[in-house]
Structure to design on (973 residues):
């Protein structure tokens, strides 16, 4: 044995100690150590170490391992039975208190479930397609020109034939304004789409009758409801119908109606004309592709240079592509040309947060009520703990109770939701069950309720853990205090949440009013927007002449004002300082445009219609700023795709051609006639003038019904989602206040009970009514004030962050904060006053006779 | 009744069975008489039989035989090399000795029954 020996590593011995049976441990460790030192002497430290690890691992045998599995000697079945019975008795004995508890839970659960189901249905858009992960829309980035999801017609077929990764490709275009469908005497505008036949192999739209084989030429596929509408009680296959008065189409198949949660919403489908020549200039359709399952879309875009080579071969070397996944279609802001509806991620977030807040609030309410009841059960809990009930056993009862209460609350929530959908259009349970899978719904309900049970049990159980049984049995004041300080904290937290909710609600409402009343830069109140079909455009001059004859019609103009969807990249302008192209939005308008919509010119003039306007251009202030011009008049700019420069002849004041969520982008107004017709009407004569317009339209275009909307209404529709959100938010605010008041009611009830004797003695000694009220109420008012102090900064932060989504937002005012606080304060005072008054008016004898 | 008797015999037979490694360990404990503890037993086996033995398998076997009553153990002295842990000395019980003898007899009788021819064939 050598003198100098290094000690062995400690970890293996710790490991041994951890798993080895304690009775074997000591001599095994001795043996290991002895062997280790001998090996170290013979072979050196490293070898000894590795032997040691090996040996310790080999000691990991069933005979030597110390099992630490706990065992439950208790009979849980009888415990459960007993607890269920006790809970049921409590429910029946204290009907009012139990009802409050369950109602609070039920309200919260209803809000939360409603929100989560709605969110789930929003997120389920387009999820039902089996190839959803492999379907993409191609977005073209055209350097120096524009970026767009509207793509040239030959792109789809070229991609499919050039690239083995692209299994299928289809063009897709959508008739936003609809097409006039005519069968016999029945004619109406229906929304339709144009696709290639591969479309039906990519997407899972199922056929009711017929199929998509040989879908070409003058065939048409109808959806079920349209087929029933035009061909009631007969087989539509093979029937002929007319589109836009001139194109006869033969029904070749019937599709089932689109599910609610499909981005694609059309009533009929007609086939694209086959591509005869590679014309890359015609931009009108989306390109949908289905990639091979094994192909990573990122890789397809980046690594394969072939895409680049392909663009070179068609002489478009500056092009490149991006892919938009099917699941993003619904939330993508560029999809307006293709899909009638789109989702709003901001609102989804807002409501998810609001739902969670409400859930937490109702749980807090429940917890504070349960812990309040502890005080009356002190003796029982103390005795249970003294007799050896562990922490789990003592809290088992609360688990059973919370479970039962939540089940009742779930029933109440279901009833509330059914009640709610009757009075609110935007929410439909039946719709939800259609669009969502049933297990999805069950998961949401289970998840929410179980998390509720968990939350409701953990806090009371933790409180129980800290209380010593002796203190409980002695009914020690100290512990009564500690648990009531917990409750106090909970109540403050609840008020904090409800004050925050109400302030947010007020700010949200103000933002909505702000949107409604904001100076838009154009007049929307008395302007009618009339849609013109391609077929009607020819007769527009006659129509305009007819309109201008009427004295109450002030101006008539044609413009693409409502269709400013696209980007245009400008890379050549006077005084250009950098190479970076700038993005502007193009719009067309005729000479009457500014007069019709009351748009103010800041500089120069608008088009007057007499001169040749091909060389001039009107821009808005944002564009002038972007291009860096102080004096814009007379400056030159080259539009992409044009040979000659254009001269700026005028600058308009900025106007909101989109809603207020978007900033005003630089705008180029080109002289031209396309888009809708705008008619400004003398105020107060709307009904009669609109009737005249309808008549005039009918005279000019007898075969087409008129389709018009007031600009103010259109603007309202644009923000409809936010108005609806505002309505829902109001309900949430009210629910939050109700829940907080329930918990306050229980608290004051409890205080009055405990202070009954004190009140009696004080009254006997001559305390006045107001003295007593003050005694009972002062704490609660303090809580509300405290909660207010906490909630102001939080709300400030959260709301100022959320309002970022609006490009134009209202400022916060002190009033909103004060109003939010005082609403809750008043609610609190009234809730407590009722109870306190009863206590203060009661005869002191009843309280004192007890002894 | 017959079944029970049969079962008892089987049990007895099973009880008296010594595994190969068990027999080696038991014999080594006997050889080391009075100095048989974990490390010494291991080294003895490794030296005599030229086979490596892990502490794990040795410990498991020792404990099992102790539980069955073939061995007894007693704590003894310690030394600084063992980090203050006492040695655990093992000793064969009379029952263990009986088993060893029994096993030897069985082997012998089997050897005797073996025809000489087969042995010589080698």
């Amino acid at each position: 044995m050598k003198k100098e020996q290094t000690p062995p590593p400690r970890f293996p011995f710790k490991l041994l100690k951890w798993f080895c049976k304690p009775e074997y441990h000591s001599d095994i460790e001795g043996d290991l150590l002895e062997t280790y030192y001998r090996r170290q002497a013979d072979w050196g430290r490293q070898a000894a170490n590795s032997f040691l690890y090996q040996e310790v691992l080999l000691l990991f045998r069933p005979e030597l391992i110390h099992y630490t599995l706990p065992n439950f000697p208790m009979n849980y079945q009888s415990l459960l039975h007993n607890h269920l019975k006790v809970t049921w008795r409590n429910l029946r004995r204290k009907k009012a208190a139990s009802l409050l508890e369950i109602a609070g839970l039920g309200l919260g659960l209803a809000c939360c479930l409603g929100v989560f189901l709605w969110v789930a249905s929003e997120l389920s858009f387009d999820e039902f397609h089996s190839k959803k992960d492999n379907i993409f829309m191609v977005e073209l980035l055209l350097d120096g020109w524009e970026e767009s999801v509207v793509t040239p017609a030959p792109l789809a077929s070229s991609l499919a034939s050039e690239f083995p990764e692209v299994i299928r490709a289809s063009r897709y275009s959508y008739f936003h304004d609809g097409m006039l469908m005519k069968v016999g005497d029945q004619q109406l505008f229906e929304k339709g789409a144009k696709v290639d036949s591969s479309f039906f192999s990519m997407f899972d739209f199922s056929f009711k009758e017929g199929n998509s084989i040989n879908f070409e030429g003058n065939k048409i596929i109808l959806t079920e409801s349209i087929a029933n509408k035009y061909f009631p009680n007969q087989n539509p296959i093979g029937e002929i119908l007319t589109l836009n008065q001139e194109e006869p189409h033969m029904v070749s198949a019937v599709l089932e109606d689109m599910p609610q949660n499909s981005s694609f919403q059309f009533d009929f489908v007609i086939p694209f004309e086959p591509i005869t020549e590679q014309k890359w200039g015609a931009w009108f359709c989306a390109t949908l592709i289905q990639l091979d399952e094994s192909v990573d879309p990122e890789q397809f875009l980046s690594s394969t240079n072939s895409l680049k080579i392909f663009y070179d071969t068609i002489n478009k070397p500056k092009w490149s592509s991006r892919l938009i996944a099917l699941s993003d279609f619904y939330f993508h802001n560029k999809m307006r040309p293709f899909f009638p509806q789109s989702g709003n991620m901001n609102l989804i977030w807002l409501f998810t947060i609001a739902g969670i807040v409400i859930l937490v609030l109702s749980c807090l309410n429940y917890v504070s009520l349960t812990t309040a009841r502890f005080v009356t059960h002190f003796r029982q809990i103390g005795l249970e703990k003294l007799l050896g009930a562990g922490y789990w056993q003592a809290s088992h009862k609360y688990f059973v109770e919370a479970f039962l209460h939540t089940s009742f609350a779930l029933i109440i929530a279901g009833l509330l939701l059914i009640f709610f959908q009757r009075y609110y259009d935007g929410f439909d349970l039946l719709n939800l069950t259609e669009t969502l899978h049933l297990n999805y719904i069950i998961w949401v309900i289970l998840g929410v309720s179980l998390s509720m049970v968990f939350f409701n049990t953990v806090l009371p159980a933790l409180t129980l853990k800290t209380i010593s049984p002796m203190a409980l049995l002695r009914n020690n004041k100290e512990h009564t205090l500690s648990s009531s300080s917990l409750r106090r904290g909970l109540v403050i937290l609840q008020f904090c949440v409800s004050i925050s909710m109400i302030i947010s609600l007020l700010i949200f409402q103000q933002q909505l009013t702000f949107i409604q009343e904001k100076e838009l830069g154009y007049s929307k109140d008395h302007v009618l927007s009339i849609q013109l079909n391609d077929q009607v455009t020819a007769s527009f001059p006659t129509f305009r002449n007819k309109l201008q004859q009427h004295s109450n019609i002030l101006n008539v103009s044609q413009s693409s004002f409502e269709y400013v969807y696209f980007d245009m990249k400008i890379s050549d302008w006077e005084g250009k300082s950098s190479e970076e192209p700038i993005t502007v939005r193009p719009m067309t308008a005729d000479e009457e445009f500014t007069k019709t919509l009351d748009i103010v010119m800041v500089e120069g003039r608008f088009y007057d219609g007499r001169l040749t306007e091909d060389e001039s251009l009107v821009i808005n202030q944002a564009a002038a700023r972007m291009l860096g011009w102080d004096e814009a008049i007379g400056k030159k700019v080259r539009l992409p795709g044009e040979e000659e420069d254009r001269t700026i002849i005028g600058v308009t004041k900025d106007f909101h051609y989109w809603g207020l969520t978007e900033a005003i982008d630089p705008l180029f107004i080109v002289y031209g006639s396309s888009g809708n017709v705008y008619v400004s009407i003398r105020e107060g004569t709307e009904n009669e003038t609109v009737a005249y317009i309808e008549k005039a339209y009918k005279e000019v275009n007898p075969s087409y019904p008129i389709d018009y909307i007031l600009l103010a209404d259109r603007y309202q529709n644009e923000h409809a989602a936010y108005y609806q959100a505002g309505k829902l938010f109001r309900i949430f605010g009210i629910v939050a206040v109700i829940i907080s008041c329930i918990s306050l009611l229980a608290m004051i009830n409890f205080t009055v009970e405990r202070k009954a004797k004190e009140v009696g003695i004080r009254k006997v000694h001559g305390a006045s009514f107001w003295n007593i009220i003050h005694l009972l109420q002062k704490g609660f008012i303090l809580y509300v004030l405290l909660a207010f102090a906490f909630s102001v900064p939080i709300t400030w932060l959260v709301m100022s962050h959320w309002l970022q989504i609006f490009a134009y937002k209202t400022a916060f005012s002190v009033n909103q904060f004060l109003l939010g606080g005082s609403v809750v304060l008043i609610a609190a005072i009234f809730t407590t006053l009722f109870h306190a008054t009863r206590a203060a008016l009661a005869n002191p004898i009843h309280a004192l006779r007890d002894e | 009744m017959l079944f029970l008797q049969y079962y008892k015999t089987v049990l007895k037979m099973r009880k008296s069975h010594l595994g190969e490694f068990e027999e080696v360990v038991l014999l080594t404990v006997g050889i080391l008489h009075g100095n048989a503890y974990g490390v010494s037993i291991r080294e003895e086996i490794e030296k005599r039989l030229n086979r490596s033995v892990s502490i794990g398998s040795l410990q498991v076997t020792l404990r099992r035989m102790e539980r069955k009553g073939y061995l007894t153990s007693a704590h003894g002295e310690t030394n600084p090399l063992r980090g203050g842990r006492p040695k655990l000395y093992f000793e064969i019980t009379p029952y263990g000795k009986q088993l060893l003898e029994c096993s030897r007899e069985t082997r012998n009788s089997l050897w005797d029954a073996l025809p000489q021819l087969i042995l010589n064939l080698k």
About this structure: The CA atoms of residues 52 and 116 of chain B lie 34 Å apart. The mean pLDDT of chain B is 84. The longest strand of chain B covers residues 71-75. The interface with chain A takes residues 37-39, 42, 54-57, 59-60, 63-64, 75, 78, 81-83, 85-88 of chain B (CB under 8 Å).
